[in-house]
């Protein structure tokens, strides 16, 4: 766990950590765009926490392919990310928690993400996004009321 360490700067591209299972870089002062190659360099990753930093740009579409598609948890809450929550999670049956709350995203969450909900037969028990982009009544009901 590397959270709460006052790290600054960008995340390096070509970060080869093929056996890494859990990465927590939350609550630092990291900035810049998210790397574009982690889908091939972190093939065993299951839990990723990049929350409470200053990341900018968009969330790479490969995020659903982290850990060779077996990612369980992603938290990028409280950054400066823009664009949309990637919608290509639909075939990911092990995904349990997505947290994209408190960013600058304006595109509504694709309704296909809602189908991952445990209420729809999936595994997703937590979806945290800002209320103005949430389309999943069952998953956003508590946080948006």
Characterization of this structure:
The chain has about 140 residues and is an alpha/beta fold. It has one domain (about 10-145): Ribonuclease Inhibitor (Leucine-rich repeat, LRR (right-handed beta-alpha superhelix), Alpha-Beta Horseshoe). About 10% of the residues lie in helices and about 20% in strands. It has 3 helices and 9 strands. It has helices at about 40, 110-115, 135-145, and strands at about 10, 20-25, 30, 45-50, 55-60, 75, 80, 95-100, 125-130. A 5-stranded parallel beta sheet has the order 2-4-6-8-9. Strand 8, helix 2 and strand 9 (about 125-130) form a beta-alpha-beta unit. It is globular and about 35 Å long. The protein starts with 7 loop residues before the first strand and ends with a helix.
